[in-house]
């Protein structure tokens, strides 16, 4: 895959939310690998939030992109959800969903009934998130939360491993003592495609992810690895991991 590699401010300008959804969430025969990764995340999210272990008042979903699938299980366990993203165009897609605008997909559960995973009353709003700042939500006044959920986001937003470690510390700082951080990471990423444009992805090993979260003050409760990778036409990576951690009660 040749061509310009978008990072930083160019990344913020060039990322197209609609193309991202078409590339990774079309559910057709050409996206078998992408569908397997989605199923891996959905399975782990369901097991994590349906167990009763992770429940509370407020969950912060950081870096959701233009998607809402990650909230299918979480919305049953938390009274309120705060979403924040580092790209302006991603919250616009989520706002369309909240407003029930035409062309926005609903989700079908096991019962076959179509449902929206979060009610308007559960969503406090869509905030600006910057993973490269020590206070990732900036001036927004948000009390410490019970859980931070971030999937497939930091490896796209951080330019090196030191920045990834710092971003992890920033997310942990949003948690109450004893709160949980839940994350999924595409491992050994080189880059990924959105439409015809190539975007930077940070190379991370599973051990690097676990160590960064431990150094940020969390205990790793479980880390599940799958060798499934994205289609090479869409993304160069090797495997994915899903991690559940708990912030020290004394932090």
Give the secondary structure arrangement, pairings included.
Elements: E1 5-6, H1 8-14, H2 17-24, H3 32-50, E2 56-62, H4 71-74, E3 78-85, H5 89-98, E4 107-108, E5 114-115, E6 123-128, E7 145-151, H6 154-157, H7 161-172, E8 175-186, E9 191-194, E10 197-200, H8 206-215, E11 218-226, E12 235-236, E13 240-247
Parallel strand pairs: 1-10, 2-3, 2-7, 3-6, 7-8
Antiparallel strand pairs: 4-5, 8-13, 9-10, 9-12, 11-13
Helix pairs in contact: 7-8
How would you characterize the overall build of this protein?
It is a single chain. The protein is α/β, with parallel strands linked by helices. The chain is built from eight helices and 13 strands. It has a seven-stranded mixed beta sheet, with helices on both faces. Strands 1-10-9-12 form a four-stranded mixed beta sheet. A hairpin with a 2-residue loop joins strand 9 (191-194) and strand 10. Helix 7 (161-172) crosses helix 8. It is globular, with a radius of gyration of 17 Å.
